[in-house]
Amino acid sequence: MWREGTCRRISKYLRYRVFATLNSPEFNALQYAFVVLLFFCNQSREPRMADPAHIAEPIYATTNPSEISLKVLLPATATGGSVSLFEEITPPGNGPPLHVHYNADEFFRVLTGQFLFRVGTETFEAGPGDTLFVPRGEPHCFYNNGTTPGRLFMGFTPGGAERVFEWLNENGFPK
Q1: Are 75 and 84 in contact (CB under 8 A)?
Q2: pTM for the complete prediction?
Q3: Partner of 78 at 20 to 30 A CA spacing, among 3, 154, 158, 165?
Q4: Could you tell me which of 151, 170, 174 has the C-alpha nearest to residue 60?
């Protein structure tokens, strides 16, 4: 009980602190602390068993009709369900619609391009080097508002979001 409440309070504080310091010199230290916090707060009471994993090539890549390309870099099956990691390339003028992940936190690191993120009622402009965190249950979307394709490093904790992308790739994306 103590751990869950404390993690929520620390996570909320760090989320707002990270958003407030996106371009400051202290951002990298806060970013590191945030990732450590995510792993600490999302650990189950029983240890998950996973072997060390080295993935040399993306597991698979998907492309939808709007030409958003998604590579699964590290699937949940390689991490005992702890995390899934992705790289997405989004063309200018594209991005997913407003949506919610009820069972997973999501984070983004902008590698290239310019993006507009909506998280809840807040809007953030993000460029290369910026990192954003979306807590589970928070409606969000993003849009490449630049003139060139943008690359995002994304992750989910706990992992497993790749199953949704696999299903969309096999059954088609909504139009």
Answers
A1: yes
A2: 0.67
A3: 3
A4: 170
